């Protein structure tokens, strides 16, 4: 009989992360399979964003092991805090896309250049190749007609859709979303969630999301993890977590956010 279980794409093994005296992750273990869509939910300050920021190499961690597609974040003999050379971190980062709360577009570049720039500079694509890729991705997020606009000419929802296209342009192994709609006016949230929902349903991309949008988490996730004080207290299918949570902290949290 063949074993169909794929090795994890992401593996946190006993990771500890401290900010000075504050321990945010304590011996944290977490795996994500290729193609899986996983949502982290939980109270403010529980460490959800820190997990994404570590994956994006924006934060070092002190103990344990983290791998992405078999690549170890730490290099033997490399110095703290990252215990990896800048070159090594850059290589890992090129496989990870991240969409932040604030869209962080380059204000002086047109929309198409915002999307095409990193594939040229980091991946070495020709301008023509990168622009063709950008045109396709702008069509995917419904912004083909805005390619020559500048970020200041777009709504927040449109800017966030450009940020999604920009992250996809690097063809990442994993796409991270850190509260992608928190900075948006309520009437603009839907269009961004719709783009992410389509991506989740139609692509085999691995996605890790931190969101306070519970209905959305339920719709897009293969697995929902409830986070509290740097630990996953409970995890399971959206159905299991939202309709039959078993951990008292999950029940308390969901009662507070769902009313
Ligand atoms: N750069 C930093 N320096 C010091 N403490 C930090 C730093 N970044 C985060 N923290 C602390 O680490 C803890 C976890 O923060 P994190 O942002 O990961 O939580 P979160 O679950 O994503 O919360 P939220 O839902 O509010 O974004 C918090 O207590 C936060 O104050």
UniProtKB/TrEMBL annotation:
SMART domains: AAA. GO terms for cellular component: plasma membrane. Pfam families: ABC_tran (PF00005). It is found in: Cell membrane. Keywords: Amino-acid transport, ATP-binding, Cell membrane, Membrane, Nucleotide-binding, Transport. Residues 10-254 form the ABC transporter domain. One of its GO terms (molecular function) is ATP hydrolysis activity. The keyword Transport applies. It is a peripheral membrane protein. NCBIfam families: ectoine_ehuA. Belongs to the ABC transporter superfamily. This is Ectoine/hydroxyectoine ABC transporter ATP-binding protein EhuA. It comes from Ancylobacter dichloromethanicus. The lineage of its organism: Bacteria, Pseudomonadati, Pseudomonadota, Alphaproteobacteria, Hyphomicrobiales.
């Amino acid at each position: 009989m063949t074993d169909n279980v794929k090795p994890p794409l992401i593996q946190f093994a006993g990771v500890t992360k401290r900010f000075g005296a504050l321990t945010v992750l304590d011996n944290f273990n977490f795996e994500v399979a290729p193609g899986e869509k996983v949502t982290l939910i939980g109270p403010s300050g529980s460490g959800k964003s820190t997990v994404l920021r570590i994956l994006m190499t924006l934060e070092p961690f002190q103990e344990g092991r983290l791998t992405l597609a078999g690549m170890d974040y730490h290099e033997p003999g490399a110095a703290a805090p990252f215990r990896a050379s800048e070159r090594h971190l850059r290589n890992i980062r090129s496989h990870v896309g991240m969409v932040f709360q604030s869209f962080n577009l380059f204000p002086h570049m047109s929309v198409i250049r915002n999307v095409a720039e990193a594939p040229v500079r980091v991946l070495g694509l020709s301008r023509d190749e990168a622009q063709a890729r950008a045109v396709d991705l702008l069509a995917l997020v419904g912004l083909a007609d805005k390619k020559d606009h500048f970020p200041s000419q777009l709504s927040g929802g449109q800017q966030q859709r450009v940020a999604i296209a920009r992250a996809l342009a690097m063809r990442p192994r994993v796409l991270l979303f850190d509260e992608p709609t928190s900075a948006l006016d309520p009437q603009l949230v839907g269009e961004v969630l719709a783009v992410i929902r389509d991506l989740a349903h139609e692509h085999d991309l691995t996605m890790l999301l931190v969101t306070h949008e519970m209905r959305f988490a339920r719709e897009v996730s293969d697995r929902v993890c409830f986070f509290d004080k740097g630990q996953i207290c409970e995890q399971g299918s959206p159905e299991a977590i939202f309709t039959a949570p078993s951990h008292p902290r999950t029940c308390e949290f969901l009662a507070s956010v769902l009313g």
